[in-house]
Amino acid sequence: MGHTSTRTNHSAGESARLVIAVDGPSGSGKSSVCQEAARRLGAHYLDTGAMYRAATWYCLDRELDLDDQDAVAVALEELPLKISTDPDHQVIMVGATDVTEAIRQSRISEKVSEVANNRKARPLLISAQRDIIDASEFIVAEGRDVTTVVAPDAQVRVLLTASAEVRLARRGLQLGGSASSEALNRQVIGRDKRDSVTTNFTEAADGVGVLDSSDLSFDQTVDSLIERVRDVQETDPAGVSRPTVSAQAKSGSEPTSGAAAHGKNL
């Protein structure tokens, strides 16, 4: 599986080997929260769910039967994926095709679990995710099993969650009220149920802190995550130095619109 990641340099300060891993169910806000936290911290940002979505798009574009696990795994060995880790400029390319918007379509949302739960294909994507994280000195990575499988040794590990009612409401806002309650349940509750076959993202593993955003605003949730990062930086354990966050990193080096609601992606 071919893959590359790109990011422009946000911070001119001291670099540090620091990994922030965040997992959570659909609609918990992990993508928008983690992207904003990375922006403020001057860190790289990896949306692992986008990689599964891109893989799903690739398979559907080739009209593969997603139930054929062998065919999907063989196809993904050749997946020409390029994903940006710049929180201000998220671009996902498959070959020469920009799929950044296409992978958010309902047809992908309703099929991505079939690829994510493919036990022959999943290791390929996990390996690619680890490569991207290992190549980054300071990164916020989020998904379903980042805290337990992809980066279990991350210095900061958080399970970001919210009540089912709140998650459904957030996903409805994200879709602009265009989805029926049945479709929302299918995208949020149904997908979580399907994905729970291979990963446990509803309960925190040992050493993973819980951040419940049910009663928190977007900014409060971001602040809480950053506070946990700062706690680790202040403790300054062996192998972790304190990255300097420049004013440019906090504001973003390129004009970009901030996420107005939780659950921007996955």
Automatic annotation (TrEMBL):
<feature type="binding site">
    <location>
        <begin position="24"/>
        <end position="32"/>
    </location>
    <ligand>
        <name>ATP</name>
    </ligand>
</feature>
<feature type="region of interest" description="Disordered">
    <location>
        <begin position="232"/>
        <end position="266"/>
    </location>
</feature>
<comment type="similarity">
    <text>Belongs to the cytidylate kinase family. Type 1 subfamily.</text>
</comment>
<dbReference type="GO" id="GO:0006220">
    <property type="term" value="P:pyrimidine nucleotide metabolic process"/>
</dbReference>
<dbReference type="GO" id="GO:0036431">
    <property type="term" value="F:dCMP kinase activity"/>
</dbReference>
<keyword id="KW-0418">Kinase</keyword>
<dbReference type="GO" id="GO:0005524">
    <property type="term" value="F:ATP binding"/>
</dbReference>
<dbReference type="InterPro" id="IPR011994">
    <property type="entry name" value="Cytidylate_kinase_dom"/>
</dbReference>
<keyword id="KW-0808">Transferase</keyword>
<dbReference type="Pfam" id="PF02224">
    <property type="entry name" value="Cytidylate_kin"/>
</dbReference>
<dbReference type="GO" id="GO:0005737">
    <property type="term" value="C:cytoplasm"/>
</dbReference>
<dbReference type="InterPro" id="IPR003136">
    <property type="entry name" value="Cytidylate_kin"/>
</dbReference>
<feature type="domain" description="Cytidylate kinase">
    <location>
        <begin position="20"/>
        <end position="230"/>
    </location>
</feature>
<keyword id="KW-0547">Nucleotide-binding</keyword>
<dbReference type="InterPro" id="IPR027417">
    <property type="entry name" value="P-loop_NTPase"/>
</dbReference>
<protein>
    <recommendedName>
        <fullName>Cytidylate kinase</fullName>
        <ecNumber>2.7.4.25</ecNumber>
    </recommendedName>
</protein>
<keyword id="KW-0963">Cytoplasm</keyword>
<keyword id="KW-0067">ATP-binding</keyword>
<feature type="compositionally biased region" description="Polar residues">
    <location>
        <begin position="243"/>
        <end position="256"/>
    </location>
</feature>
